[in-house]
From TrEMBL, chain B:
The lineage of its organism: Bacteria, Bacillati, Actinomycetota, Actinomycetes, Micrococcales. This is ABC transporter permease. PROSITE patterns: ABC_TM1 (PS50928). GO terms for biological process: transmembrane transport. PANTHER family: INNER MEMBRANE ABC TRANSPORTER, OLIGOPEPTIDE TRANSPORT SYSTEM PERMEASE PROTEIN APPB. It is found in: Cell membrane. InterPro entries: BPD_transp_1_N, MetI-like, MetI-like_sf.
Length: 317, 314
């Protein structure tokens, strides 16, 4: 599912243009005035001006607060089954009603969200680290090692990820750490490809060759010069990985192979809601569904914003 | 050209071989091995040893691998543990249905996404463009099963326009005979790829709009319509071909979800039921076939790209 990544939400070109105008203050002599800004500052300024990205960031922070601080302000029992309060519609005491085992739906949205967000972020971090190392090694050493490593990536990519995940989940019993591990292990392919591609092009750049001419070792070139330039692309991809992981964990939960009850995630909640489509218990379907959409859209907006700021940095390289 | 095709073909064969190695490794990760999976938890050690000898699981790993590879190459994917049917006969039954579902939704995707992307690019940063972009954002972020559930709830449950379940009988015929039952599955499966494809189409047309050849065509007096449909469209379609190849795994995965929502007896539903029942020969058979189809699809996309686009370096 990671294979198609449209350029969702590229901002209209003028936003990037604005970034240019403000980042380079030109004095009357036509030379940049004052101290040159660092790459990071440039990228940061572009990101700050991307309104959609900021909206995404704010929504994401709100979602994290809702899931992790929410239960403190709105404590609910998410462990004991309460069969007297089953499938109550939204009303006093239960703003979003209750589900088929009597859990308060709003509270469940919070605890389920904790699992979804935690797995999403952790899996993205693992995938990014594994993928970066894999891609850097392949791109750096080249030759037959590169072909073997990249054909392996191609092979795993050609197995639909959901099939692979379902198979892995039938072998191991799903718990939060296991899910993080399994999702991370299947999601590192795209960052591996990106990093390999980047390091292949960077390897022949003038400044990297200059390091070699000056007698720097290859490892020095990789660690000090290639890695810092790859990191932007990697971080951008990591945000998209978060979105993908949240979706994938939802898919697994929907297919009944996610986290075991009483713990749950948004996908698992939706899966339970499936049984009640024909009874019109809408409060069991729409809240977790919209929660997933809102968080994934927010993560994608942040990712797009980051990509634009990285691209500005690339243009100035 | 021939050299390029041969090189790509060799690469694809290599990828398929790596896939078989991965699947072979997965097979050996089954708890207790294949014997335990088939004979069940109450099998005695003697029975398991016997089974391993009978099926060659006591031989060295590489011997087992090549034997397995030979089986796979001749279309022998073993026997389903739960359905008492050979995996290849199951695949023959189910695969055409998934392929038809996938092709119909891909066709819908291209029919909707290409004109949408063009329109958005030509009328960029207008209200319609913003609305379409926003919608594509949402559909791209929406899990397929949520779209499917909402579709059932709204169009089947509340409005009663379409049945909530796909045609159940065997074969491809019923898909067309009861087409009203296929509308929701096809649209559900297509929405995600429409969101992706239209974004690509939009930026692809945008990239082409300020190319030199467009200015040349305009300077020569070609009408805006002719420039758009004769010059830009042909170039802008190129990434869509690659995208068609790349989106195959997503289609298969989406089909798994869509088929489980609408109870459509295709390969995805087969896989899901096999996964729930730990019917590993079926799972592995489906994985190998879909991976093979994906590699073949990518190869086809690359070759047609090379044929269509003279700029592709051969």
């Amino acid at each position: 599912m990671t294979t198609i990544r449209p350029g969702v939400g590229e901002p209209p070109p003028e936003i990037v243009g604005d970034g240019h105008k403000t980042t380079v203050a030109v004095s009357s002599t036509g030379l940049p005035a004052g101290k040159a800004k660092s790459m990071f500052q440039l990228g940061f300024e572009v990101f700050i001006q991307n309104r959609l990205a900021i909206v995404g960031l704010v929504v994401l922070v709100l979602a994290v607060l809702f899931c992790f601080l929410g239960p403190v302000l709105y404590p609910t029992d998410q462990v004991t089954v309460n069969l007297l309060n089953v499938n109550l519609p939204p009303g006093p005491g239960h703003p979003l009603g209750t589900d088929e085992t009597g859990y308060d739906q709003l509270g469940r949205l919070m605890t389920g969200g904790q699992v979804s967000l935690m797995i999403g972020f952790a899996a993205a971090i693992i995938a990014t680290i594994v993928g970066t190392i894999w891609g850097a090694i392949a791109g750096f050493f080249g030759g037959w090692l590169d072909s073997v490593m990249m054909r392996t990536v191609d092979a795993i990519l050609s197995i639909p990820i959901l099939f692979l995940l379902l198979f892995l989940v039938t072998i191991v019993k799903p718990s939060v750490p296991v899910m993080i591990f399994v999702l991370g292990l299947t999601a590192w392919l795209v960052p591996a490809r990106l990093v390999r591609g980047e390091s292949l092009t960077l390897r022949v750049r003038e400044y990297v060759q200059a390091v070699r001419v000056m007698g720097g070792t290859s490892w020095h070139a990789v660690l000090r010069h290639i890695m810092p330039n790859v990191i932007g692309t990697v971080i951008v991809n990591a945000t998209f990985q978060v979105a993908d992981a949240i979706l994938l964990i939802a898919y697994l939960g929907y297919l009944g192979l996610g986290i075991s009850p009483p713990a749950t995630d948004w996908g698992g909640m939706l899966s339970n809601g499936t049984a009640f489509v024909f009874t019109n218990y809408w409060w069991l379907i729409y809240p977790p569904g919209f929660a997933i959409i809102i968080v994934v859209v927010a993560v994608n907006l942040v990712g797009d914003g980051l990509r634009d700021s990285v691209e500005v940095r690339l243009q100035r390289r | 050209m021939i050299g390029y095709i041969l090189r790509r073909l060799a690469q694809s064969i290599l990828v398929v071989l790596v896939v078989t190695i991965i699947v072979f490794i997965l097979l050996h990760q089954l708890p207790g091995g294949a014997a335990r999976a088939i004979l069940g938890p109450r099998a005695t050690a003697a029975q398991i040893a016997d089974f391993n000898v009978q099926n060659g699981y006591n031989q060295p790993l590489f011997v087992q691998y090549f034997r397995q590879l030979g089986d796979w190459a001749t279309g022998n994917f073993g026997f389903s543990i739960k359905l008492n049917q050979s995996v290849s006969s199951l695949l023959v039954q189910r695969m055409p249905k998934t392929i038809v579902l996938g092709l119909l939704s891909l066709a819908l995707t291209v029919i909707v996404a290409v004109p949408l992307g063009i329109y958005q690019a030509v009328h960029r940063n207008k209200p319609f463009d913003y609305i379409a972009t926003g919608l594509s954002f949402i559909f791209y972020a929406a899990p397929t099963f949520f779209i499917g559930l909402v579709a059932i709830e709204v169009f089947s449950q509340n409005l009663g326009w379409f049945p909530p379940e796909a045609p159940q009988s065997d074969g491809v015929g019923p898909i067309f005979a009861q087409f009203d039952a296929m509308v929701l599955p096809i649209v559900t499966l297509a929405l995600l790829s429409i969101a992706g494809f239209s974004r690509y189409m939009r930026s692809s047309v945008l990239d082409n709009l300020d190319q030199d050849y467009v200015r040349t065509a305009q300077a020569k007096g070609a009408s805006p319509t002719r420039v758009l449909y004769h010059h830009i469209l042909r170039n802008a379609m190129i990434p869509i071909i690659t995208l068609l190849g790349l989106s195959l795994p997503a289609i298969f995965a989406g089909a798994l979800i869509t088929e489980s929502i609408f109870n459509f007896p295709g390969m995805g539903l087969l896989f899901w039921q096999a996964a729930q029942a730990s019917d590993y020969p079926v799972e592995l058979g489906v994985v190998i076939i879909t991976a093979f189809a994906t590699v073949a699809g990518n190869l086809l996309a690359d070759i047609s790209l090379a044929v269509l686009d003279p700029r592709v370096k051969l």
